[in-house]
Amino acid sequence: MPGATKANDDRRDGVQIDLISGERMDGMASMEKIRMILDGVHDGNIVILEEGLSPDEESKLIEVTMAEISPDEFNGIEIETYPKSGTRDSSLLGRLMGNDDTSNKLTVIGPANQIETLHKDETLISALVSRS
Amino acid sequence: MGLFTGLKDSISRVTDGLFSEQEPKRIGIYGPPNAGKTTLANRIARDWTGDAIGTESHIPHETRRARRKEDVEIERNGKSVTIDIVDTPGVTTKVDYEEFTDEMEKDDAIRRSREATEGVAEAMHWLREDVDGVIYVLDSAEDPITQVNTMLIGIIESRDLPVLIFANKIDLPESSVKRIEEAFPQHKTVPLSAKEGENMDEVYENIAEYFG
Question: Which pTM value belongs to this model?
């Protein structure tokens, strides 16, 4: 069927964006989240997390990413995060109480060879995404 | 865990990090590639032990394995501290071997990138498990507000590790220490040139006072 073939071709030519809700991430273990993100990025997708990762998860994401880099196949990730307005709590009391802002930051992750951050400020992340 | 139990544990973690009596303390030197971490580690090691730690280079990821110099005793203004300096590879989220092919053959570039990725993974693991404090080195001629710097500082803060920020390369005309102070106002920033040995007295004063 010509129409179906064209639709499939369009899909192959495009860039898939996975917008993952906080609700979906809620019940997942840290390594499940990291696996889901990196599986998406390996497929060439841009992954957008409604709620960010904890600092410990970010550290593990870097560690696992490094383990999976290979010549001519995967050279890592681009990651950009900004906190939602008015939610950042960097006070000593905030940190003592365990407020590490996990649920209050939006995070964009993509393949390093396909995504380039053009601009970032408190309210905007502007990225250029190219096809691989 | 109850609210007050959690608070007590958190306070305990903070005080343990700042005032532990265990000696020597393992101080990790972290930061992005080419910030001058190895140059600084070598200068500290040479000044206090007479030996260097590793090779310095303008090529990113020259340090591909964490290296340690043990029992470095630093004294300033009546305060002293004995530390193990851990020089780590520059932290990044991507490593592309093609960045090195101008400087070396493809096989060597691939080997270097493989070693670099293993080194960064190791450095991240150690940050979670094996350091008592952090010296975070930034190139003061570069914009400090990058995702890697923000993320790393956040990871260090979340572990309640004491951290000093060193604004390196103040000998460069485009250096701006103020830009770093404004980016991370919650931490003490110390300006220096590890290459030229500028302001090392203040560096040692802060290390002895902050980690001692």
Answer: 0.83
